[in-house]
Specification:
Length: 260
Amino acid sequence: MNFENIIISSENGIGQITINRPSKLNALNVATIKELHDGFENLDGNPEIRVIIITGEGEKAFVAGADISEFANFSIEEGAQLAQQGQELLFDFIENLKTPVIAAVNGFALGGGLELAMACHFRIASENAKMGLPEVSLGVIPGYGGTQRLPQLVGKGRAMEMIMTAGMITADDAYRAGLVNHVVPQTELLNFVKEIASKIMRNSPVAIAKAIKAVNANFKDGVDGYQTEIRNFGKCFGTEDFKEGTTAFLEKRKANFKGN
Ligand code: COA
């Protein structure tokens, strides 16, 4: 696949997507959102890829937001369509992938950039990262799921303050608020994320996919998360990975999961 705005690489079962518009601080234009969808779909469909990492090119930004130059003249309908298409194509899509997705937040993660990081399964930041939802300073609100996912991660009060002030918080503040799981020096960020990925890769991909579904069910309207958990717990008993995991434990050896 040929991409203009992203770089895809893979090594040892880890897929990496790097958003590559550093001169625009990796701002998300529509073309980049489409490429990201295709890139994620491609890696998620590859059984050899066990974890996906997303990061931004350069030392300054993960993603500095949706591309403001693209929507400055939009009508009401075009605005709503932009948010709807983006959510379906990328943000909800990532959240519901079966492969774990980790955001390596290497600098500014603002607006759509923070929303992208929040759609990932979890986030790790470099010390220089700055995060915020500045949309109200532009006269608009977060449209790629930010009003929903930020309160889920940091609580309603903190989310309200961040959204209303449009301010940026530091990586350490984000860590204290539960928005990112770890903060590391920028030069160590990717290696640190890959170490966590390698821990994930020791475990059953089928079970991890079902765990993602069960955890996400808690945040879906009209879905009973406990029932989703029960159903997916049961399904695990029909998998080869479950047989391998339990047999390996009883035989006092490491499990060799095939992902089926
Ligand atoms: N959309 C489009 N272009 C963007 C962008 C965005 N969200 N964020 C940055 N850029 C572009 C700038 O226009 C500039 O392009 P240019 O060199 O062609 O003029 C380039 O990226 C570098 O940004 P610049 O503002 O010069 O860098 P800075 O270090 O002075 O400031 C930020 C960094 C992140 C504080 C600033 O770029 C910013 O506030 N960006 C917008 C953040 C935002 O509101 N995002 C939410 C969008 S809904």
